[in-house]
Design brief:
By secondary structure, this protein is of the alpha+beta class. It contains eight helices and 32 strands. The protein has three domains: 42 residues; 210 residues, no CATH class; 144 residues, no CATH class. A hairpin with a 5-residue loop joins strand 5 and strand 6. The longest helix has 30 residues.
């Protein structure tokens, strides 16, 4: 290499040039590696970043499906035959008995039938990506939606089950966009990303270190029961939901999982708690140690207060869908059992004394206009005295000789009877009130409620409020998921 004479004449310049070249070459290698390969520096090699796992997300069931891609892509049959597809080709899949019929239209048109699962993949993981042109019965939400990863189609009870094998981090950055408003603070989005990743790990039974799932490699042996998470479990609609903010929130929390006793936490979340989250035993009938009721800081939300008028027709439809027999016109909807937050675990629905108890979550399922089960219900109209069933989680107004007192909450107040004796109200005792107010016109049930969603786990509007107050993602997650431990899994 260099002689001593050359070192004496230009040693300092040579050393400077060498150092500069080393830095530049190192940066080039690191950039090309994308952080996924060992990089040699003077101090040794950087550790290889752990690979993130795949998840298999069920998208929908359909009778017929048409796919398209803007670049080169392929169809692989159960026997291993690969059919190369070009930009502009369309691929239609349909159920034919216990087999899948496939047809390629456009340049090089061909068709065939497969006796097992089919795999549809882009030529490169970086795209262009596969798009859903149409899916019979899957709804408009998937029309022209594009997805990263590969599509796997299998026959399931006479239908075509379509699943997306995708890197979990790509899945997370799409779900964050589907679940949270993009203009919200980044810390709220980061908290959402950790919750999404944790819930996906919980649903799919992921374990730390077991990140080598290769659904694409074993696509031909997959069965419908291998699909453990669906696009409706967390709103997943592919690339169209990704933004710079969702990608930043995902990358900055990469591999972070909330755990409980070393396993992924069931990080449930919802739109707005209405002031306090709920114990899941009063929602789904079973408790979870780290999903406990917590009071959230006050925050602005369009769901802090809502009101819904339910007509007898609405109640009759709900009763029919829930299998409740009506002995007459439906005129009863009132709370029966409630949880710590004041949400109704069960309600009475039906006609007069023949009303039947139903689960609050079941009521919401058949009456989507009811945003949450945190409500007080009032039967008004029909020329009868107004009757109300008050939730301990809702405030109300009291009218008396001293005027109207607003913002009253049960639990810290007393209802005075005609004998002037106080009737103490204890959580979670339900309280019914009767007013002499008589309103003419058709009878209806008015619900005055707060919050949106089941009320378990993270409140998205609450997370937004905390982020606006300067709280970071881990402070937000610590409030809504106490007793969990954050852990980096990859």
């Amino acid at each position: 290499m260099d002689t001593g004479a050359r070192k004496r004449r230009g040693g300092s310049v040579t050393r400077a040039v060498c150092v500069a070249l080393l830095v530049v070459l190192s940066l080039v290698v690191y950039t090309r590696a994308g952080g996924n390969s060992p990089v040699l520096f003077a101090g040794g090699a950087l550790p290889r970043e752990s690979k993130s796992p795949q998840v298999l997300v069920g998208l929908f069931r359909t009778k017929s499906l048409t796919l398209r891609s803007g670049g080169n892509w392929s169809l692989t049959t159960p026997s291993g035959e690969k059919v190369s597809l070009k930009p502009g080709n369309s691929l239609t899949l349909s159920v034919s008995g216990s087999k899948i019929a496939w047809e390629v239209t456009g340049s090089g048109a061909r068709k065939g039938t497969a006796g097992g699962n089919l795999l549809v993949s882009p030529a490169s993981p970086q795209g262009p990506f596969v798009s859903v042109v149409s899916a019979e019965g899957a709804g408009a939400a998937y029309a022209y939606a594009s997805f990263r990863g590969s599509m796997i189609a299998m026959v399931d009870s006479g239908s075509l089950l379509v699943a997306n094998a995708v890197d979990i981090e790509d899945y997370v950055q799409s779900v964050v966009g589907g679940e949270m408003i993009d203009s919200w603070p980044l810390e709220a989005a980061r908290a959402q990303a950790v919750a999404v990743r944790s819930y996906a790990a919980y649903k799919t039974g992921l374990r730390k270190g077991a990140t080598d799932r290769d659904y694409v490699g074993v696509f031909s042996s997959l069965r419908p029961e291998d699909v453990l998470i669906w696009s409706h479990d967390q709103v997943y609609r592919g690339i169209g939901e990704e933004t710079d903010r969702t990608i930043s929130a995902t990358l900055s929390t990469r591999g972070e999982i909330l755990t409980y006793q070393g396993l992924p936490a069931a990080a449930y979340y919802h739109a707005d708690a209405g002031g306090m989250t709920e114990d899941p035993c009063y929602v789904w009938g079973r408790g979870v140690p780290y999903l406990v009721p917590v009071a959230e800081p006050p925050h602005e939300s369009p769901h802090s207060f809502w009101s819904v008028d339910l007509t007898p027709g609405d109640l009759a439809l709900a009763a029919d869908r829930l299998g409740v027999h009506l002995s007459g016109p439906p005129d009863v909807l009132r709370g029966l059992e409630q949880g710590v937050s004041g949400r109704w675990f069960t309600v009475l629905l039906g006609s007069g004394p023949g009303a039947c108890p139903v689960r609050g979550t079941d009521l919401r399922a058949v009456l989507p206009q009811v945003k949450s089960t945190l409500f007080s219900a009032y039967v008004v109209g029909g020329g009868r005295a107004t009757e109300g069933s008050l939730s301990t989680g809702m405030c109300f107004s009291v009218a008396g000789s001293e005027g109207v007192l607003s913002g009253v909450h049960l639990g810290s107040s007393f209802v005075i009877g005609r004998s002037n004796g106080p009737l103490p109200v204890h959580l979670p005792q339900a309280v019914a009130v009767l007013s002499e107010a008589r309103i003419e016109g058709s009878q209806r049930v008015v619900l005055e409620g707060s919050g949106w969603g089941h009320g378990v786990g993270l409140s998205q509007w609450g997370a937004r409020g905390m982020a606006l107050e300067g709280k970071d993602a881990w402070e937000i997650l610590g409030l809504y998921y106490p007793e969990t431990t954050p852990d980096k899994w990859w």
